[in-house]
Amino acid sequence: MEVIRHYYPALSEKQIRQFALLNELYTDWNAKINVISRKDIENLYVHHVLHSLGIEKMIRFKANTSVMDVGTGGGFPGIPLAILFPEVSFHLIDGVGKKIKVAQAIADVVGLTNVDTCQRRVEDEKGKFDFIVTRAVMPLPRLLAQVKKNIRREHSNALPNGLICLKGGDVQNEVAPFRKQMIDIDLSDYFKEPFFYTKKVIFIYL
What we know:
Layout: H1 2-7, H2 13-32, H3 44-53, E1 66-70, H4 78-84, E2 89-94, H5 97-110, E3 115-119, E4 131-135, H6 140-147, E5 162-168, H7 172-175, E6 182-186, E7 199-205
Parallel strand pairs: 1-2, 1-4, 2-3, 4-5
Antiparallel strand pairs: 5-7, 6-7
Helix pairs in contact: 3-4
């Protein structure tokens, strides 16, 4: 939890309490339903919460922005972002029901009224959103093909509406088709933990 307070010193007391709750909640749920690698749960705040918040280094969403988190699993990156941006609405979807159950339960306990969840495959989602966020659920060309229909055309943020992905490793071949319509940043420029050495945020606009 201290790593979150270090990088986000302006959090409100409510946000601090909400972030602090995540450790016990995910530890308890993970013992019942494996939503995070059992070996990785001790790295919750760096590998999952802070990584999710890396999207904020690409864009600070304006109030009333709508965001869909595709393949959210147990709620990443959606739940940490919903804590950070309480005036933004987050729609979390995943095809696996037990994972969505965890995400909804954690959102309820933390008191996130700006989150709704749904067991649904992205190809079946018909809603329109300003941004789609995701954490390495599938290759970019396939993902963009599936979410283009869900991106609202009218935009009101500093960046045009689009897809924001958290990616790691060598992504040069994967992003090559989108070079003229993308921005990418290295999270190691912002977060100094070794985990972030190869982590990027990739934004693709239509």
